[in-house]
Amino acid sequence: MNNYIIQFPENLKISLKNSKIFFEGNLGIESVSYYPLFIKIIDKNKLEISKISLNNLFYARTIINLINQAIRGVDSGYKFQLNLIGLGYTCKLIDDKIELKLGFSHLISKKIPSYLKVSCFNTKKRKQTIIVQGSNKQKVMEFISLLQNLKYPEPYKGKGIFLKHQKIIRKQGKKV
Description:
13 strands; 4-stranded antiparallel beta sheet; 3-stranded antiparallel beta sheet; Outer Surface Protein A, domain 3; alpha+beta
């Protein structure tokens, strides 16, 4: 594997500075560093990655995946849905904070980072839903895990903060 070519949409602007690639799209700016590899812009919408050898193959694949994530992030973004499952679990947006009621004796308030867009609403089945959007997948998932750690999905009663398609294996309770 000597060279690898990545195509990207023409509406993205790409620049190379100090061994970093900057991607600018309609959802923001992302950057990826690529130190031991050599990257150049071929056409308006193609990047060529060279100096890939067996010694740095795994590193090169990681950089290629990070570049693809950055391209998708600034072009269409990442959107994840969280469901609050449990009696009385609610969420509210107040200014730049999300306020959660998760069955504790107090409300839990978390600050929403400026690079994320968060919305809360009820669905038809009376589930509270939180949608988290952003251009950087790692930062979006980091915020989601911060919210999930407040009330992680519990295997006995099936309550907690779940990702949309997350399934947990329910355990049998105490036998009488």
